[in-house]
Amino acid sequence: MLVLQRWQMQKEFKNKFNKWYEDLRDKKLILTNDIDSLASCYVLNRLFGCKVRGFYDFKQLGYTNSFDRKGFIGVDMDAVVKNATVFGNHVTYFKNPDVVSLNKDITRANYTNKFAGSTLITILSLYNIDLSSFTEEQLEVLISVDVAFKQYYFNKDLFKYYYNDILQYPIFTKIVGKHNKQYFYNIIRKYNLHKDINLKNGFLHTEIDLQGLSFLFDIDLTLPKDKFEVTHRFFDEGINLSPGNIKILEKERNRIFSSALIYKNTLKYSAL
């Protein structure tokens, strides 16, 4: 078992976030379609008791109670609509002042300096979660979520900056440094971490190995069993950020629900 010192996210970085995240009691969560969001929701439930009452997969948004849409927090959801409080991890073209994300201040101009990691590890650090009792395999799974290990192999210095200095979890630098990329891709395949969460006939389904992950971490990691009613449908599109397309985006700003820069000049977004 690895023994870690207890750290917390660098205070100077925490100060960039609005303080809504400090107490989420009585809040409800919007789950998105992957293990990063599901595991993050699990952590937030353990910390504050908040439960998943919404689901968003970039093409549709649904709630367990379609008449109750107040007090929601998006988890691993880079919504850019007004007053959306969300935990995210992507660089966005339009900025949300209420996002908690290490990429909050990253733009196209400094895109290569982005944090290419998970919302899950951001949340663990934000709430000062002690990882000293985690086994090496558990830590390997954590750094495999959202393929976070990849950043180490194309920019070790940037990886160390985020994990050693900002998140203050230097153990991940040591963990990734011991193996090649294929080692972590094998972990992804072992637990099906790359599989989506899907909404079918109102209920959530996935091929992620939740049973295996629950056994590994000694937790009950399961999907909500509630029925979700779809209230909004979106078109999901990717575009090149040419000057002409930027003008179109600016005109359609009020219709855009969420966005993510997947490359410096390519934007993926969902709009009404």
UniProtKB/TrEMBL annotation:
What is this protein's record name?
A: Uncharacterized protein
**Organism of derivation:** Senegalia massiliensis
